[in-house]
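Intended use. Records like the one below are meant for learning the mapping from a protein sequence to its folded structure. Do not use them to infer anything beyond what is encoded.
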Amino acid sequence: MKDVTLSAEQVQKFKQDGYLIIENFLPASQCELLKEKIKDVIDQNLNLETHPRTLFTTYQANKAEPDAHMMTDYFLNSGDGINFFFEEGAFSKETGELACSKYHAVNKIGHALHTDVPEFKEVAQSEAVKNVCRSLEIKKPTLPQSMYIFKSPGLGGEVTPHKDNSFLHTGGTRLLGLWIPLDDAMKDNGCLWFIPGSHREAATLFMNRREDNTGCVFVGENNSKQGDEEYVAAEVKRGSLVLIDGDVVHKSYPNTSSRSRNAFTFHLYEGEGANWGATNWNQPTDKGTFVELY
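Structure written out for the chain above:
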């Protein structure tokens, strides 16, 4: 793993654009190791007979109501464990059985890979990640969640424009996304797209956990609805690290290629002065999945 200390120019670039690409963060061998390990995670933890078959969708992000999966207990209780969310086309409408390989049917796995699976913990809690945080002058980096996103060929769906701060509320301190593609991420297989500089306008739409814990509700107005002409494609080689400001607008298109676009991603927030309130869908538990890196 590359030992990263950001240069003054890189820090300025991140402040200017709201995202930053760091190449060769993970070697190809480690990317392959993580891709193989996630198959073991599926084999050892996914039981289709007992799974509620929760689907992951983002099409509701520009509407008043939350996505269907965000209303389920399975989602609300997924913060401190290994949980599986399927693509919309994963199951046959006629038979209810898987319409493809289980390795392709899963949209994402979350949200505690950074504590529960050593190979992913090694990356998320690495000295390299800590050095990135130090370069950005984050005093108390706290890691609340992690995800493995598959974006399988022909099945991986769209992720609509959004700001990460809409979904994780820190009470005003910095939120940082770290996104590591384990395959080359190009336009045809669903790379990320950003609106540079859009982080200067704070998120005004928030997904709040209901007080009665029966799901989530969106509050506020969505200010992530910008035209396609403003977006810049972030095509990156596998093993790169993409830093994402919590307020920068980003999205991705469906994977229309014959290639996968696997990625490991996690979030950090400035714990000093933070107020991780009860409105967050993800709440700390006694399992210790909210990790202070230093």
